[in-house]
Model the fold of this input.
Amino acid sequence: MKPIKLATLTILVALSVSTNYLMISLYNVKLMDLIVFVGGFCFGPVVGVLIGVFSWAVYGTLNPMGFSLAIWFATMFSEAVYGIVGGLVGKILFSNQGDELKREMRNACFFFGTLGMLLTFAYDIITNIVFGYFSYSSILLGVITGFVPFGLIHVVSNAFFFGLGCAPAIRVINNVTGVNRSGRSKE
Done:
């Protein structure tokens, strides 16, 4: 891995974990998902997965809400999905069209907000299934109690964060790192 990718991966993991601790009083309102997605978008699915897994490896182990091995694995897996999808979206839709985000900001905001909402819904379903199975011995009870109201808060806040934050964050990371989607310097 090139030094710029490694440094950015480390910074994004630190940012992801630290913002989770800073926002601990806002239950299920976190920037981690956005950070993992943007990391995947800018550097590819493998880096996105690493950001998601490393973020949850740290935050899940030192989680103020407590530790559960099954939920820890479920959250690491589910968080990695944000990085995979971010990497695939970056590769498929915007690989040679970085300036397209500038021209199509309104469409990009709607696209990223909708995508964030759908990814968060899937994340919450997966983690609530695991939570329900191990906590209540009932998947249905886990999904119902985990999704209302906490999952709804998570979905709505991520739709907002992704809609407003993805395009600017992608531009900033690309400008600061000077790396394009292929990993080569823009110079």
